[in-house]
Amino acid sequence: MTHRDLVKTVLMAAALLGLAACASxxxxxxxxxxxxxxxxxxxxxxxxxxxxxxxxLATHATGVSANQSAALEALVGRWLEAEARExxxxxxxxxxxxxxxxxxxxxxxxxxxxxxxxxxFDPTGPEDNTIRVGFLRYEAERPKCGQRWENLSATRNxxxxxxxGCAMAANLAAQVANPEDLVRPRDMTxxxxxxxxxxxxxxxxxxxxxxxxxxxxxxxxxxxIP
Length: 226
Hints:
Helix content: 25-40%
Distance between the termini: 76 Å
CATH architecture of the domain at 3-30 and 47-141 and 178-182: 2-Layer Sandwich
Number of helices: 5
CATH superfamily of the domain at 3-30 and 47-141 and 178-182: OmpA-like domain
Number of strands: 4
């Protein structure tokens, strides 16, 4: 497997897992009639695609150069803006020292260490003597509304018209900050261990565990001058 093939495999694996459970209804079959509501059926028409956003770095015995550092900083900026899951550093096994420097730079520029993953591979030729750094960027394609309209005045069957809900789904696809949220939920944030220990300590002592009540929660009439 070549360097480029390995990078594509690593970056696309997560996308395939998420998108496998988010199949869209073929356009010629119309919206999903088994949806819970009339508006929900159009959510299946939002197509979410992913593509790698990556940079390629030449390996140097002296480590990361100034130009490479600037490129890494710009990449972290795009990664933070896209709210992506992880940054992947794919490096040949003989470039472990520089790969470690690349990871340190990514963390220095704002990427959490737990979200930076280093993947090694065995190079097969001179063209594989590079380090690729990137992440998966997701895009949402809006459904096309208004292609077919029936007689909106014929309401004797008390059913919604076929395009009902399409505009809402199209607006959602256009405004969503991170289209990956339409594929799968985000990871849970770590629990607040300090607050948990404080509450459990009060509970064991038989003390009140609720927060103190302030004046704004008292329900009294405002003292503001009219």
